[in-house]
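Human: I hope this is not a bother. Would you mind checking the protein record under this note? Thank you for your patience.
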Amino acid sequence: MAPDADRLRQRQTKVLSDKSDADSTEPVLRISTLKSIGETEIVIDGGIYDIKDFDHPGGESIQLFGGNDVTVQYKMIHPYHTTKHLEKMKRVGTVPDYSSEYIWDTPFEREIKKEVFKIVRRGREFGTWGYFARAFFYIGLFFALQYYWVTTPTTYALAIVYGVSQALIGLNVQHDANHGAASKKAWVNDLLGLGADFIGGSKWLWMEQHWTHHSFTNHHEMDPDSYGAEPMLLWNDYPPGHEKRRFVHKFQAFYYLFVLAGYWASAVFNTQILDLKQAGAKEVGINMENPYIRKSRKYAIGLRILYILTNCVAPFYTVGGFSMAVFGHILVMGAASSLTLATLFALSHNFEKVDRDPTYDTRHGGEGTCWFKSQVETSSTYGGFISGALTGGLNFQVEHHLFPRMSSAWYPFIAPKVREVCKKHGVQYAYYPWVWQNLVSTIKYIHQAGNASNWAHGNPYTGSQ
């Protein structure tokens, strides 16, 4: 950023014409800084675009990140990007001396796109009949179990099964939808995306955090998932003596499941639902004060009240008053949902030799970091088609991070080709044939990150120790 950029932000300059006459029809662009862009403006590659009246083919969710630099997010979900796409938006300014730690259009990116798009043709990357059959099966299971949860006395068995059914909605329905991958029709994604709210979360908070996580996976400053469990758990492998390290972290591999079991409660009773400003995204610098978020708050709050009434109040009403047994059932339901979701989440980016800081070399004088390469080397894949049907493709985490707007139904078909291209380009691809192998590697990593033992073998942030 130029040292006098703030002073220049109000300066007007013509960038497409040197004419000075008053009749000139050339666009006039302002020079601004990232911190001073408007609530309905976004920055892509240093260009400032006003999206207030932009009719986005993917729906109004584009408004979610108004007021932010969305270069990575934009290129991440537009794999067919060309400069002509940007011409559809109203450009209103420029950010001088714009730079990024990530680079695009590398040989690896070009080849992996070329090969994958031979398998999944453009326009066909959305949900298949198989995906929707799976999604509606899980939706039917969820609502059937919810009916019993509300109308009959609860039991521990029902609590466990119902909790797992909520997790299955999170994995198989809302995840694809809130990535815009379930359907090319925006309203279908919007509707299925509300599955997050029907299981105790929030589609808006989820998108704020999850899209940021996808854009900057394992980034030392920009990935909110890296810090989400602190101070109880350290996902980041901080250097020995780091201020965030505590003695208890040496034993985190032994207690991390108990922490993950509280995921449901922390989501359901999260006060961030009131302003829809996700704490992790806010901590890494994402601006969440824009018209889209403000107008969505009433819907988010209403859905959260509905969830609490249905799942935490109705069971007591059914038995005629407060009951410690019912209270226990609710806690078990939440724990079952939490462990099903969070245990799988933990596998994705925390395993032995994972790259915990993909832009490390870039910041220390190296070339820019290939974003596509970084997504592979910060993620893992396990199992195959069956695991994909159970986890909504969460097991194909490498493929998902490379192509997040592709339906999970396609990942089993592109995975072999992805591994082949990675091997050709020397990109480290972590694959575990069985989920338990990934789990063992994750537990080892959690222990290593907790006691800083990796630092005895070099810098673990490079993923090459």
